[in-house]
Structures are given as structure tokens and as C-alpha cells.
Design brief:
Elements (H helix, E strand, L loop, with lengths): L4 H11 L9 H12 L4 H11 L3 H8 L13 E6 L2 H5 L2 H11 L5 E2 L5 E6 L11 E3 L2 E3 L4 H12 L16 H9 L6 H13 L4 H5 L35 H13 L2 H11 L24 H7 L1
Parallel strand pairs: 1-3
Antiparallel strand pairs: 1-4, 2-3, 4-5
Bound molecules: FE2/S2 (inorganic) cluster (FES).
Amino acid sequence: MAITETTREEAQALALRYPVARAALLPILHLVQSVDGYVSDEGMALAAEVLGLTRAEVGAVATFYTMYKREPVGNYLLSVCTNPTCKIAGAQAIYEAYVEACGGRHVDPDGAGVMVEHAECLGICDAAPVVQINYEMYGPVTHDEAMGLLNAAKAGEPPASNRSGHVPATFTAVEREFSGIDDGVHDQLVEAARLQAAAAVPPAYRTGETDLPVTHPGGDPSGHGGAAFRAAFDTPPGSPPAPQEQEVVEELAATGTDTAQELAQQVTGDDAATPDAVLPAADQPPVVPSSDPDDATEEA
Ligand code: FES
């Protein structure tokens, strides 16, 4: 397959899930990898275009993380952990036998299309030696069992994992799952991003050094992404703002500036909202959104 207009639309949809568009780079790279079977030049160009990045910035990420492949994987990626515990248990010999079986290459030219690679510790050292097929774990495996996994993958019929019981999906199917595009919570994530962007506060609120408001969250990347990304799955549209948003609006309201009003309007989605619309009543505790998805559905 090749990158299509549908891929572009899906990449743009992924970008909407983040208050700062460039944060969507990793899922978009998984998306383009699900189309081409690797991160192609065309896929990197698409990511750069959609996110407003340079190709160098995209390439720096795509070549840093080992889950992004720069050559076609085929249907199955076999990863052999060669860290000490597995190595001692025979993994190095398995890895070398895999490469030899692929004609001294990491990509087997025959059968269903197989790539082999060595991997760092996969986190289940007690099951050493460990092999993965498209990230499904197998371990412990004997040398013969490991060779059987390779042959089964080459034949397009990998067995179920002896850890999860799952039969590995093809590499492109797994990559599409990793992209998250079919996770069924797109609208909630877009709303979460909107709330996150709305909760962006002027630097004055954070630092006291300036009163210039941040007019776009992309203007100040600090505090966004990673562990700092506040989960807002349980704040459906129209529900009361999360405590952090109330706290921000409350403090800004105390300053008497227009910024409090603007923020209240962003948080509520109501152009006529005043700060009072999102502040808890004086005798009411702050609203704590439920963590129960069923409650969120009912409230919506
Ligand atoms: S060393 Fe192989 S799983 Fe940890």
C-alpha cells in the first residue's frame, strides 16, 4: 500500500487529539508504518506536513526509537532479547541462528516476510530466553522451539503466544493498533485536548514574570505532554470543568482581568459565559469528575 488521502485525514485526526499538534508525531509514525510496513520517506513527509515540522525533526524521532523501522518489515517482526539473562539462557545462539536462517540478513526475502532483530530486556527475565513475534511474548523457549517460531512466521502461521495466548496479528495490523486511530475514543480525546488547551494559562499565572497571555498552546510547550498530560477522559462535553480548571479560573477571576472571562468561555464552550459559570458556589466543594466511564456516559 501507499500513503493515501485517507492516511492524511487520519493523521490530521490524530493531531487533533493533542493540545500541541507535534505531540501526535509518535502515533502518526505508527500510522504511516501501518500503511507502508515501515516509516517510508513519504510517510515522514506526511507527518512533517500535517504537524508543521521539518523533515529533519521527523527523521530525528523516526531514527531514534527502535520501534520505527526504516526498511520494510514484512508480516512478522521477531525480536530476540539478547540482554544478559536471556543471553545466558541461549538467546544469543537463537538470534545468530535466525540471522543465518535469513541468509545472513535481518529481513528474510522469502515466505510471508520476516524481519529479525535483537532486543533489549523485554521485562520478563524469569521466562528467559524470550522471543517476541510482533510484540507477543514467547518464553521460555528452547532453541528448537525458537526456530519453530521463525519457520511458522515465515509460513505465515505463527502459533499463539505461550504467555498471552494471542496469535500475533500482522505487523501492519499491530502498527495500526499502536497508532490508536481505531480506539473508539477519538471524540473524547479531541475534547480532552480542547480542555487541555483551554486550561493553558498565561505565563504570569505560572511564573509571575510577565503578563503576556499564551494565545496558542503551541507557543509555549512547557508543561504539556508525558506525565504532565492531564487525563480528561471523564470530563465529557458540557460537564463541569475539572478542579484544575476551576482553580485557574478562580485565581484569574481574582485578578479582575478579561483573561478570566475568556478562559471561562473556552472551558465551557459558551461565548457568553462569565467566570461565575465555572466557579463553584461559595458553599459548594469543587466538582470532582467521576473516574467511572459509566458515570461519564450518564452525565453526557
Ligand atoms: S534479559 Fe531478556 S527479558 Fe530480561
